[in-house]
Amino acid sequence: MSELDSWLQVLDSRGVDRRILADGAIAHLMANGNRLLSQRQLPGLELDTKEAEDGIVALIRLRRSVRLEHPLHLCFGVLPASGRQRIEMRLILEDESAAEVVAHCFFPNAERVEHRMDAVVELGAGARLTYNEAHFHGPHGGVTVIPKAKVRLGRGALYRSDFSLTSGRVGRLDIDYEVEAGEDAVAELTARVFGHGDDDIRIRERLVLAGRAARGLIKTRVAIEDDARADIIGITEGHAAHARGHVDCMEIVKDRAVASAQPLVKVTHPQAKVTHEAAIGSVDHQQLETLMAHGLSPSEAVDLIVGGLLGKPGTAPAGVVTFRRPPHSTPTKEQPA
Amino acid sequence: MALLEVEHLSFRVPARTLLEDIDLTVEAGEIHALVGTNGTGKSTLAYLIMGCAGYRPEHGEIRFAGQAIDSLAIHQRARLGITLAWQEPARFEGLTVGDYLRLGTDPATAEDCLQRVGLVPADYLRRMLDKTLSGGERKRIELASVLALQPRLVILDEPTAGIDLLSMHEVMALIRTFKERGAGVLLITHREEITRMADRASQLCGGRIFASGDPETVAAIYQGRACRCCNGEECRNVRTR
């Protein structure tokens, strides 16, 4: 079976419609490890990619005023138990263009896998980008994920990112995002992670509201159990008049897991305003008892609360995750065909 | 045998007695109003009946349909048919109103229940049950959700708090719906006019049942109470039960 066929099977297993790769109206880029498998560009959307010595280099450019009708799908990952993937990506949306990017990242069998993403994202004036990145990991925890991104937003640009890693073991995750928002630009950064075992989660997001009336939100939702660890740093800086920012971090902790949250706010202009909130603890008592008064067992209630916290509002059903994972001793390893 | 029987119930926290020798019953198909000012122990009694964490009687017994329930957890009591609508309902991130209303019931019931509290299902079923809802909206949704559960006994803790006056009749109609369906209702309130809609009423004062019986009589006694913050001291020697 070819690498591509293996990937199609993985897509199927995770409910991703494989027709996104065959549809001539949908752009995509697919890479297994440091090998490019498939890509499609569209009028106004250029994908300039190459396999370099130490990974994949991709330049993605959406031309001025082009608005993608369908999302651009990025399928990345490493299917074998060991391997490495490094992607250097430059994503440019020219003025008044608009796109949604859906990144599917698969590491179903990872025992010794490393995935690095170094991204530079540039949005021109009035451009709009939604970047949804969903990770699907296996049960072994043998994966290191290091996504780094530097994002610059032009005047009136809109950038929304949503990173989710709620399926399988996290392994080691080290997110480092920096976003600089120009005049009237809006940035919303959301991260949702569910850690088990000895997973090690570090998320650092820095939002710089540099332009007048720039607005931004950093929202982090983390649940951890067993001996997992999570350190969350959310930095928001307001440097211009009428800039408005907010940092919102919530972490649910169970068993021996340890969580920390450091919301850091900095304002250098008297007319800027930045606020923050952080909550770490066990599941909210009243939420738990309310659901139990509806007949749910304590474990069902916890699953529903955590599922809601980590789920994607409006699309994913509540209760999609289970706080108790299968025993480590009996992993169900997915095999690439 | 009453649906709910509370006998000689006392509850203490380290510093003081919150409830003392409470006797109270609720029949199936009956609305029993529990009236009292702030801090008299009304919500504490509700949490004891529901079995909330940290609320276990020091003395006395709570029976539901003849079965002692003191040792049961909340969800076990709920599965017997008891539920509680909190005075300030919890909010949930990532949970829609529809999801919440469908816990343990079918979708059609959920929609009907929303309509009964004056909310248009199409406008609310996909909304998040979070802080984007106003206090009044959240309160109505809580009432709809307990109606959807079709409980045998429902404890309503200040169901009209946060509801605008024009909508009060909808909430009162909803309370009567429980009764019409054969459920017992323990209606906790601090308002005389809500007390009067009950079949029976009891006034709680300083952690004790001070008066019990006909709602008009109890409401009148409550209206003419001597104590403003109901500490039980002024009433202690004029107990009428």
Descriptive account of the structure:
The complex is a heterodimer of chains A (337) and B (241). Chain A is mainly β and 337 residues long. Chain A is built from four helices and 19 strands. Chain A has one domain (3-310). In chain A, 11% of the residues lie in helices and 53% in strands. In chain A, the strands form two sheets. A ten-stranded mixed sheet of chain A has the order 2-1-5-7-9-11-13-15-17-19, covered by helices on one side. In chain A, strands 3-4-6-8-10-12-14-16-18 form a nine-stranded mixed sheet, with no helix packed on it. Mean pLDDT of chain A is 90; it is low at 312-337. The longest helix of chain B is centred in the middle third of the chain and has 14 residues, at 135-148. In chain B, the strands form two sheets. Chain B has a six-stranded mixed sheet with strand order 6-7-8-3-9-10, with helices on both faces. In chain B, strands 2-1-4-5 form a four-stranded antiparallel sheet, with helices on one face. In chain B, a hairpin with a 2-residue loop joins strand 9 (200-205) and strand 10. The radius of gyration of chain B is 18 Å and the shape is globular. Chain B has 241 residues and is α/β, with parallel strands linked by helices. The interface between A and B is medium-sized, with 30 and 26 residues.
